[in-house]
Write a structure and sequence with these properties.
alpha+beta, rod-shaped, about 20% strand, Structural Genomics Hypothetical 15.5 Kd Protein In mrcA-pckA Intergenic Region, Chain A, about 130 residues
């Protein structure tokens, strides 16, 4: 007979959520499925071989339970408790990341003036530095 464990406790041990109360809230939200059945109670028991499906951030996670947890240990230890059947997709790169970390380009004269443009405007208006 395989060991069982509370669903909220297992989610916390496996480091899917930062606190057990967040795990309880997810289980009670009615958005978590255990072996295809909607779960609305955090005390539902999970065992080896169970399949969990739940939203986490922008992704839907499909997880196979490999073992019950005994403690909330480091991440490598937590990853031995489950098999991720749907790894999260890599996040899309924003335009500034594609350009090598440089800020996005803007049309000259649009938006706030740069420091150089501000100094040119001040010089044009006849204002002198107070330094």
């Amino acid at each position: 007979m395989s060991e069982t464990q509370r669903l909220d406790k297992w989610l916390w041990f496996a480091r899917f959520l930062k606190s057990r109360s967040l795990a309880t809230t997810l289980a009670a939200s009615g958005k978590l499925r255990l072996n295809g059945q909607l779960i609305s109670k955090a005390h539902q028991q999970v065992k080896e071989g169970d399949m969990l499906t739940f939203p986490l951030g922008p992704h839907i996670r499909v997880i196979k339970v490999l073992a019950p947890g005994s403690r909330r240990g480091p991440a490598p230890e937590a990853q031995t408790l489950y098999e991720d059947l749907s790894p999260p997709l890599p996040r899309e790169k924003r335009p500034e990341e594609v350009q090598g970390g440089q800020p996005p380009l803007r049309e000259p004269g649009s938006g706030r003036p740069t420091k150089r443009e501000r100094r040119a405007i001040d010089q044009l208006m006849g204002e002198e530095d107070e330094d």
